[in-house]
Automatic annotation (TrEMBL):
InterPro entries: FAD-bd, FAD-dep_Monooxygenase_BioMet, FAD/NAD-bd_sf. One of its GO terms (molecular function) is FAD binding. Keywords: Monooxygenase, Oxidoreductase. SUPFAM superfamilies: FAD/NAD(P)-binding domain. Residues 3-314 form the FAD-binding domain. It comes from the Bacteria. This is Flavoprotein monooxygenase acting on aromatic compound.
C-alpha cells in the first residue's frame, strides 16, 4: 500500500514514522521549502511522551528538552493565584512532561523520518484534491505534479487545509478574538533555575513563560481583539512593551532580550469540531481534523496521539496485507479520536474566553476563584482526560 501524507508538521511526520516502522511505503508532501518551524515551543505532556517512546524518540527529545516542575499562575500585578505540581501529574501518568522548542522537536521528527526511509518532498503545495476513478482521490500540486496513492492522509494544518476542504466541503478557520506574540528568549543569566512555567493573567491579556533550560524559555503574550489587524514585524517589540511594561519581571527583560526578528504575531484561530474526518480514500488528522487553541495545551500532543492510534489501528486491521478494510479503519479511527479531541477543543475555547475576557469585574472574580481551586483535583482530571484511550492506567 502506497500512502501519501499531505503536510510535514508534527502530525504528518510522526505518522510517517509510525507507518514506515510497519513496512508501509510512505511519502510526505510539504508545501514549504524546508521543515516548518512555526511556533515557539510546546510542552509534550505525558500522553505525548508515551507516544514519543513508542516511536523510539523519547531519549532524543529528552536530550534537547527541559523537564518543567510546576505551573504557577499569577495576576498581572504579581499576586499568586495558584500552582499546579507537574511532577505529580507525571507520576500519575507514569511519563515525564517535556518543554521543547518547536524547531528542536521538528528536527528530531525530520531526522527520524529520513533515517527510517520516509521520502519528504518539499515545495509541494496542494492546489486541489479531486475524486478520480474507483472513488480514489487525485492530489494536484501547484508545481503541476499529481499523485494518486492508495491512501491519502491530510495533515496539512488548520489555516488552509485542502484535505479538510475535500472531506468537509469547508476549511475556513474560526478567529477566536485574540492575538498572540510569541518568541524564544535566551540569556547568559540563569533566570529560570526551577524550570517553573509561569502564567500571568490580566484584563483581556496574558503573558506566559515556559522554560526549556535555566537560561532559555519560549513565551507568548496575548491580547483580546475584535478583528484581525495588520502585522508589522518592526513594531512587535514596541507593541509588547506598551502592553506589558508594568507587569512583573522578568516579562520586560524577556521582551527586551528577544531579537525583534525572532518575534512572531499570530491572530489565533481554531476550527469547529466536525463529524466526518474522511471521504473515499482520504482521512484528515492533526490540526486539519481537530485544531484546539494554544490554551488547551494539547495541540501537538493530540497530533502525536493521532499518529499512535492511526498506526495501532493499521496494525489491528492488517492493512499492509488487506486494503479492503480501509473504510472500517476510517470509521474506527474517527470514532476513537472524535470525543477526546472535541472535548479538548471546547476546553481550550472555554479557558481562552476566561483569560481574554475584557470585563474588569469578571477578571477580579476569576482571579479570586483561581485561588480557591483544588489543584490536586485539577491534576487528577488532567491525568484521566489526557490518558483516555491510551494504556497509561490512570
Amino acid at each position: 500500500m502506497k500512502i501519501g501524507i499531505l503536510g510535514g508538521g508534527v502530525a504528518g511526520l510522526s505518522t510517517a514514522i509510525a507507518l514506515k516502522q510497519q513496512g508501509f511505503e510512505v511519502e510526505v508532501f510539504e508545501r514549504r521549502k524546508s521543515t516548518t518551524q512555526i511556533g515557539a515551543g510546546i510542552v509534550c505532556w505525558p500522553n505525548a511522551s508515551f507516544v514519543l517512546e513508542q516511536l523510539g524518540l523519547l531519549d532524543e527529545i529528552e536530550s534537547v528538552a527541559g523537564i518543567p516542575t510546576q505551573m504557577i499562575r499569577y495576576s498581572s500585578e504579581g499576586d499568586q493565584l495558584g500552582s499546579l505540581d507537574i511532577n505529580e501529574l507525571n507520576q500519575l501518568m507514569a511519563y515525564k512532561s517535556y518543554s521543547i522548542l518547536r524547531k528542536d522537536l521538528m528536527e528530531v521528527l525530520t531526522s527520524s523520518a529520513l533515517k527510517s526511509g520516509v521520502t519528504i518532498r518539499y515545495n509541494h503545495k496542494v492546489r486541489s484534491i479531486k475524486t478520480g476513478a474507483n472513488q480514489k482521490a487525485n492530489v494536484i500540486f501547484d508545481n503541476g505534479q499529481q499523485i494518486r496513492p492508495d491512501l491519502i492522509i491530510g495533515a496539512d494544518g488548520r489555516m488552509q487545509s485542502i484535505a479538510r476542504q475535500y472531506v468537509n466541503q469547508d476549511n475556513k478557520p474560526v478567529f477566536q478574538n485574540f492575538v498572540n506574540w510569541i518568541g524564544v528568549f535566551e540569556s547568559q543569566e540563569a533566570l529560570f533555575p526551577s524550570l517553573s512555567i509561569k502564567d500571568y493573567w490580566g484584563v483581556g491579556s496574558r503573558f506566559g513563560v515556559v522554560p526549556v533550560s535555566a537560561t532559555k524559555a519560549y513565551w507568548a503574550g496575548g491580547l483580546a481583539c475584535d478583528s484581525i489587524g495588520e502585522k508589522n514585524p518592526e513594531t512587535y517589540s514596541d507593541e509588547l512593551l506598551s502592553l506589558f511594561h508594568q507587569w512583573p519581571e522578568p516579562i520586560t527583560k524577556i521582551i527586551n532580550g528577544t531579537p525583534q526578528h525572532q518575534i512572531n504575531k499570530i491572530y489565533v484561530h481554531d476550527h469547529h469540531p466536525i463529524k466526518a474526518w474522511h471521504k473515499n480514500n482520504v482521512i484528515v488528522i492533526g490540526d486539519a481534523a481537530h485544531s484546539p487553541l494554544p490554551t488547551s495545551g494539547q495541540g501537538a500532543c493530540q497530533a502525536l496521539e493521532d499518529s499512535y492510534q492511526l498506526a495501532k489501528i493499521f496494525r489491528e486491521y492488517k492493512l499492509l496485507q488487506n486494503t479492503d478494510k480501509v473504510p472500517q479503519f476510517f470509521e474506527h479511527f474517527t470514532e476513537l479520536r472524535m470525543s477526546k479531541t472535541t472535548g479538548i477543543t471546547l476546553a481550550g475555547r472555554q479557558l481562552a474566553n476566561s483569560i481574554f475576557n475584557t470585563d474588569p469585574e469578571f477578571c477580579i472574580q476569576r482571579n479570586l476563584a483561581s485561588k480557591k481551586v483544588d489543584y490536586r483535583a485539577t491534576i487528577l482530571g488532567m491525568a484521566k482526560g489526557w490518558s483516555d484511550a491510551l494504556p497509561l492506567n490512570v
